[in-house]
Amino acid sequence: MAEQLNPEKVQAFAQHVIGYLGGAAVASMVYLGDRLGLYRALDGAGAMNSAELAARTNLNERWVREWLYAQASAGLVEYVGEGKFQLRPEQAVVLANESHPAFVAGGFTQVLSLLETSKRLPDAFRTGHGLTYDDLGEEHAIGMERFLSPWLRANLVPVVLESLVGVTGKLRAGAKVADIGCGAGRAAIVMAEAFPASEIHGYDNSQVAIELAKRNKEEAGVPNVEFHLVSAQGLPTTPSFDFITAFDCLHDMTDPVAAMTAVRRALKPDGTWLIGEMNGRPTFEENLTQHPLAPIMYSFSVLCCMSSGLSQAGGAGLGTLGLPEPRLRAMLQEAAFSRIKVHDHGHPLNTFYEVRI
User: Fold this and answer.
1) All residues at 6 or more sequence positions from 51 whose CB lies less than 8 Å from its CB, including other chains
2) Is residue 313 part of a domain?
3) How many domains does the chain have?
4) Per-residue pLDDT for the chain (357 aa), expressed as one digit of tens each?
5) Residues 77 and 131 in one domain
6) Looking at the structure, do residues 137 and 78 belong to the same domain, yes or no?
């Protein structure tokens, strides 16, 4: 006999599922608020009505009014009564102030590209073959850069690099540095700006990312950084680098062990490798019960990270949470690294590893 349905449980579960549909809709509104400058216009302006915000942004009042209703209903802006809305300081640093390490609105640039990508994934489910980062397009690369860069810009030099034994002294004196999986180049540019005597090289096999990185270099006006359309396996095969970095990229690679082996060859005997990786738990069961962002992380994995890792035949396909500390340690030891120190710098997503031969 079939189990009798509990109407209250059905209703509760339906509301739970609808909440995710609502999340997609609200995410689209955040994308529009960021793209149209609505958050920036609200930042520091005090209470405004829709007509005032529309005038400030040169947009149509009726559309701005409905956007404000959606934002206030979602708790993203504050309704203060009498048709007026404001962005509180705590909301502004997350949604409007791109220089603050808590800024995340830039990541919503990826929303449309990720939804568009989902239309191409049925074939991946059937064939097992994923999409490269270039397949995801420029908006995805820009969104990833804008999502990850604020924290790194604020913390890479004064917090993360300062915690590494002997690294900043070498960088001040003049060191040769490689940033593998450099993406749009923000970390490499930050290091180049902070350490003008050092020579910084960014490596990535994404043409879209490297084009963005070169554009960002020109805007920053830093002469001591160069970007190369080459994967980590294309690093020099002799010990050439004093310092190598890899931020949020190893889990995306089709062959992370080969990349680690290439780093091992290219790193000087007294060199340091800094790895920033997702702070996933060792097992799915632990992520399920302990990781507050597990639904987002596993979904991003299907949409981009695991997909990238399966974009070549035989790819590792680790996924967003697929490189927790025990697995990373084992792979590093396989690549002949013996000294690994873990750092927790309060990053919302990453654990940092100080690695030496």
Assistant:
1) 61
2) yes
3) 2
4) 457 899 999 999 999 999 999 999 999 999 999 999 999 999 999 999 999 999 999 999 999 999 999 999 999 999 999 999 999 999 999 999 999 999 999 999 998 899 999 999 999 999 999 999 999 999 999 999 999 999 999 999 999 999 999 999 999 999 999 999 999 999 999 999 999 999 999 999 999 999 999 999 999 999 999 999 999 999 999 999 999 999 999 999 999 999 999 999 999 999 999 999 999 999 999 999 999 999 999 999 999 999 999 999 999 999 999 999 999 999 999 999 999 999 999 998 999 999 999
5) no
6) no
Residue 136's domain spans which residues? 114-356
Residues 48, 14 share a domain: yes
Task: At 98, list the tokens.
Answer: 């791109």
29 vs 184: CA distance, rounded Å:
25
Tokens 């640039």 identify what position? 109
Q: Is the dihedral of CA 141, 145, 146, 148 positive or negative?
A: positive
Q: At 22, which CATH number?
A: 1.10.10.10
Distance of CA 280 to the CA centre of its chain: 15
Interatomic CA distance for residues 246 and 116, integer angstroms:
28
pTM of the model: 0.94
| Residue 103 domain flag | no
Asked if 80 and 141 sit in the same domain, the reply is no
